[in-house]
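Tokens in:
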């Protein structure tokens, strides 16, 4: 009887690992994934934005989030209509009439910029760390067939959240330096 319960516990914990990783992957795809892909330049350039004006953008709480620009977007794909668009977290405060190659995601234009890499990289890290920690704990439970002590996993999760912010900042700084130099 004890072996059957232990086997059932292992199976439930194993399914929990798969479900946790599946939910984490889905949330990454739904929340910061498309924007992060556009910022990092995955895929071909979608079009060109002719900048009308740039301004300091703020979030819902009034904190500065970087420079946004509005302008006229001309797509490269035939059949897609030109329209006004926001260049989210631009790499520079462009002058009126400047043309910037962009990739689009969710109705906004993106280019490689340090602020955008920091914003979306940190969001991705902060989203993934709790799910990966939970999956690691469930995997440990599945291996042993018992409920493992989660104290160490909690502290690893806190360290991972801190590391996500630090790595996002380092990546943003390096991208900012790279875009300024090149």
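Residues out:
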């Amino acid at each position: 009887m004890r072996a059957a319960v232990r086997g059932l516990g292992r199976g439930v914990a194993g399914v929990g690992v798969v479900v946790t990783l599946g939910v984490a992957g889905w949330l990454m795809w739904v929340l910061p994934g498309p924007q992060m892909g556009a910022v990092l330049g995955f895929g071909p350039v979608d079009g060109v934005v002719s900048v009308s004006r740039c301004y300091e953008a703020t979030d819902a709480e009034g904190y500065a989030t970087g420079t946004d620009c509005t302008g006229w977007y001309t797509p490269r794909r035939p059949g897609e209509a030109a329209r006004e668009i926001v260049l989210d977290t631009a790499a520079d405060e462009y002058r009126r009439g400047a043309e910037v190659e962009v990739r689009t995601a969710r109705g906004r234009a993106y280019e490689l910029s340090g602020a955008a890499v920091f914003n979306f990289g940190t969001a991705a890290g902060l989203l993934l760390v709790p799910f990966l920690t939970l999956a690691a704990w469930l995997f440990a439970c599945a291996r042993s067939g018992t409920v493992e002590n989660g104290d160490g996993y909690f502290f690893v999760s806190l360290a991972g959240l801190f590391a996500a912010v630090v790595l996002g900042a380092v990546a943003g700084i390096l991208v900012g330096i790279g875009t300024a130099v090149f």
